[in-house]
Inverse folding.
């Protein structure tokens, strides 16, 4: 069917102008007044957080957990709270670090292998990989938006 008249509105998430339907053939899925791929889509953050957890799990299973007290070098690109723990990612020239805090009462502080002025945690590192580094940066941009 042909559209007789379109209604213009504003996305309820990002404020951008959008077309949400027509007079005759109103589509219920368009009536929410938000972009389908809105940059402020709340599910986008949820999916990014889930992907970050998946990346962290992968690094902790496949990465190296160096002994001793280490200080990751590079840029801290991600610092998030997942459930009740804080998680960090550092991207350096040689390594990508994934760190989970380990500084609470009841934690086994002797397992901590990463120490710094803002960190006490358990960390794993994997060799630098441009694709992984970019994905972590992309996730950080979504979560920090």
């Amino acid at each position: 069917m042909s559209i007789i008249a379109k209604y213009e509105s504003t996305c309820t998430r990002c404020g951008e102008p959008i077309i949400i339907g027509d007079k005759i053939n109103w589509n219920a899925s368009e009536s929410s007044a938000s972009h389908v791929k809105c940059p402020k889509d709340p599910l986008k953050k949820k999916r990014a957080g889930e992907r970050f957890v998946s990346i962290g799990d992968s690094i902790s299973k496949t990465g190296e957990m160096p002994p001793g007290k280490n200080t990751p070098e590079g840029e801290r690109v991600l610092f998030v709270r997942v459930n009740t723990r804080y998680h960090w990612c550092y991207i350096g020239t040689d390594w990508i670090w994934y760190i989970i805090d380990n500084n609470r009462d009841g934690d086994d502080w002797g397992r901590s292998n990463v120490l710094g002025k803002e960190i006490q945690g358990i960390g794993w590192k994997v060799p630098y990989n441009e694709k992984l580094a970019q994905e972590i940066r992309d996730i950080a941009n979504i979560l920090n938006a």
Notes: The chain is about 25% helix and 30% strand. Residues 1-5, 22-35 have pLDDT under 50 and may be disordered. The first helix runs from residue 42 to 62. The chain has two domains: 1-40, 42-143.
